[in-house]
Amino acid sequence: SLSLSLSLSLSQTFDKILIANRGEIACRVIKTCKKMGIKTVAVHSDVDSSAVHVKMADEAICVGPAPTNKSYLNMDAIMNAIRTTGAQAVHPGYGFLSENKEFAKRLTADEAVQIAQDIGYPVMIKASAGGGGKGMRIAWNEEETREGFRFSSQEAASSFGDDRLLIEKYIDNPRHIEIQVLADKHGNALWLNERECSIQRRNQKVVEEAPSTFLDGETRRAMGEQAVQLAKAVQYSSAGTVEFLVDSGKNFYFLEMNTRLQVEHPITECITGLDLVEQMIRVAKGYHLHLKQEDIPINGWAIESRVYAEDPYKSFGLPSIGRLSQYQEPLNLSKVRVDSGIQEGSDISIYYDPMISKLVTYGASRAEALSRMEEALDNYVIRGVTHNIPLLREIISHPRFISGDISTNFLPEVYPDGFKGHQLDANQRRELLASAAALHVSAQLRSQNVHGPLRVASVPVQSNHWELCVELGNERHQLEIKKTGTTYKVEVDGGQVEVCSSWNLASPLLPLTINGTECMMQCVSRDASGVIVLQFMGTLFRVRVLSRLASQLNSHMPEKVPEDTSSILRSPMPGTVVAVSVKPGDTVAEGQEICVIEAMKMQNSLAAAKQAKVKSVHCKSGETVGEGDLLVELE
């Protein structure tokens, strides 16, 4: 039955079953349970108190008067009977509640709450067949457990075709460190050192490195040896990963074993020199491992950044879709590896994981690997989709990350109000403004060049001095710029910035030397109104460069009135509407769920921003919506 199978998905062993039925089917189930050594609970109406199934059962509970809607169809009464007797599963028989989806949902959610209470909050609810952060929720109380069960089971079914869940104790603020193992079919197994995977969002890894800054040799060896013991105990053969949570005292706790190749396997390959895919194929063919544990080195340091088609300003990364109109990997740089399965022109859709690539850098030291990662991110050109390079660039340059002071709570602790992009200091602001002004002047000078003969002779415009106004956010800055050869000297905010570049304006990459220091910017777009979008230190900045006269005239233009977002709900991402919880005329409370959007197998609950009456609903379950589409209007 549906109810039984869903209940069993959480608890594979039990010693008491409640039969939510009567008559011959109840007797049939009770007989089978007795044969299996399982105790039984019968429910009955008041007129069925002497029925055969009641006498056969080990326990019996009255669930109401004779009318079926007040007894055998009374979900509240039956749920109370389950809680009172401690039954671990329900067999609904046929008829009555046997095909009632709402009853099935309540059963499994109730068992999830009971398990969570037995373990003690907080707990982690996660898909037993899952990975990649899908089908995972943290619950701190009963309400969050019920909500987490609902979303986790739906995501698990959608992502893996299996809605079974695990509930385990959630360890707050740990490190997530995993051990790579490799085992053959002849009883040999090795541990290939660790990977630090603590930088996560929504329980999905974002930045990984090998080795970990936290482990000492003794802890590394202890974790490695236990991982190998586990692999041998289950006679595992292939590459696999044993994941641990590690607390501040370097105590480690087994989390799970992934019997497959991990996304982050390249960083292990970089520091060991092994090709894990090759080793998996050799093992599958039956070859012995040709290495011993003492042959496994730690050579240098490697870091992996997961580059996603996501908007990092929305919950550290909500999916983005589109076509890669321009795509250029930084493979011209040394000690850089890019594992990707896309190319310029590829489509990123709502149906699959939004990963664009795994960007890996390595070096003799961690500092070298980090420096190369900064350079690689600055040189990575991605157009057509929103991506998470701004977040990646900020993570690897943050003082806490550089010092190794990290945990799985790194992102919410460092960015408690959400990710806002790189925050410019005074010097960086001057450098950005000066670079934008120099680019503007360079583009103007190029537009004045004419190749080939002219019918009418032109008068060349000779100028090497410009007075400009550059707008950044709500700020306006007055600049003076002088050009000598490929050098631009810019007076801005009381200081001087020297920008040197022989840039190619047709290229998205803008190599610059600013006050003697080399850096790489990207010109994402330029338009005729003077708006330039520059990628600087990973973050996109929109600046507008105007002559001083144009700036004065522009101040008289009317400003666009912003939309009142409290009375409307727009989709924050492209996806599919899974559920709509309201209809026109309903009154909703602030924070009440209005609808659920699924994208890349992840479900997101959208809530009302204020208490109001629903004016209109513009979506329905099963529809595909785009980012910014209007979903619901409130009065």
From TrEMBL:
Catalytic reaction equation(s): butanoyl-CoA + hydrogencarbonate + ATP = (2S)-ethylmalonyl-CoA + ADP + phosphate + H(+); propanoyl-CoA + hydrogencarbonate + ATP = (S)-methylmalonyl-CoA + ADP + phosphate + H(+)
Pathway recorded for this protein: Metabolic intermediate metabolism; propanoyl-CoA degradation; succinyl-CoA from propanoyl-CoA: step 1/3
Domain ATP-grasp: from-to ranges: 88-285
Record's keyword terms, sorted: ATP-binding, Biotin, Ligase, Lipid degradation, Lipid metabolism, Magnesium, Manganese, Metal-binding, Mitochondrion, Nucleotide-binding, Transit peptide
Entry's Gene Ontology BP terms: lipid catabolic process
PANTHER family: CARBOXYLASE:PYRUVATE/ACETYL-COA/PROPIONYL-COA CARBOXYLASE, METHYLCROTONOYL-COA CARBOXYLASE SUBUNIT ALPHA, MITOCHONDRIAL-RELATED
Protein name, per record: Propionyl-CoA carboxylase alpha chain, mitochondrial
